[in-house]
Amino acid sequence: MRTSLCDTFGIEHPIFGFTPSEHVAAAISRAGGLGVLGCVRFNDAADLAEVLDWMDENTDGKPYGVDVVMPAKIPAEGAALDLDKLIPPGHKDFVERTLQRLGVPPIGGEGRAGVLGWLHSVARSHVDVALEHPVKLIANALGSPPVDIIDRAHEHGVLVAALAGKAEHARSHVANGVDIVVAQGYEAGGHTGEIATMVLVPEIVDAVGVPVLAAGGIGSGRQVAAAMALGADGVWMGSYWLTTAEYTQSLGESAMQQALLGATSSDTVRTRIYTGKPARLLKTKWTDAWAAEDAPEPLPMPLQNLLVAEAHNRINHANDPAVVSMPVGQIVGRMSAVHPVAEVMADLVSGTRRTLDRLRDL
Q1: CA 132, CA 303: separation in Å to the nearest integer?
Q2: Which domain CATH number covers 83?
Q3: Dihedral angle sign, alpha carbons of residues 115, 118, 122, 128
Q4: What percent of the chain shows pLDDT beyond 90?
Q5: Residues 130, 64: contact at Cβ < 8 Å?
Q6: Domain that holds residue 334
Q7: What is the DSSP letter of 87?
Q8: Nearest to 137 by CA among 10, 237, 41
């Protein structure tokens, strides 16, 4: 199972794995795919630099990439404190009332600051740090990064990928200089559009002349083969790594993984309550509360994240699977057991080969 992207990146399998865990990202690369580390959780560029140093030492010389969150248009930004003042008091009151009603207790110490990685200036610092390391890919979760960022990446010999939920978005990305388009269907976890993968992938393949990765609803070799049949040059997988042994190693046993392991493909919801942009989350009592009639409308990015950041921290500490707030795709219905990344990768590859063999026999 080789495509042109295998030769481009020097990888064995055209499987790109997005994850917020450096342990998972490194394991994906070691297993022959391309691990892509999500950077949005890093408020401090020095912390990201330390983690990328660790990646350099733990990928056995195999390539890896990073994922940033950067809008193409540069927004006006103030300090985090100034942004906090833009959050209506009624929204803050709703969050506190909801946490109390769900039995989520306060935690000691100062409240957690919002994840500043959603800010354009912080995302730029992530790019600065990444380009000081041997990364092979910079992906942007919000579509095309600014053209000057694309040009800087190319000057360092680094390719740029951008997620797209429509063919028109993909064409715009390529016009801006993006090298790889990730066609992310409605089924996907996190930020996602309204068109299903089965429809979206061939539309984008036909619209652009660059390699396309299929994303959304991929968690088996049959689905990898389906992506190839639709014209993709590889797959982009995020949710499926959340129940790997290496993710457990990163976080320890968690209510989040318990909730994922027990969920079905019907147990997700697409909502703006996580970041302010539409994102698919695990359906829990927390998402239900925001869908109630008395709930306020979510705020735009990055204000919504700043609003709920401390709540997410309290929810994590509460360790209650019924309340967790976690982006995940509809593929969660297949995520019923914990396996090492290498085992997951081997199963994906062997399943793809079996499927292609069966199709050849038809």
Answers
A1: 30
A2: 3.20.20.70
A3: positive
A4: 82
A5: no
A6: 4-361
A7: S
A8: 10
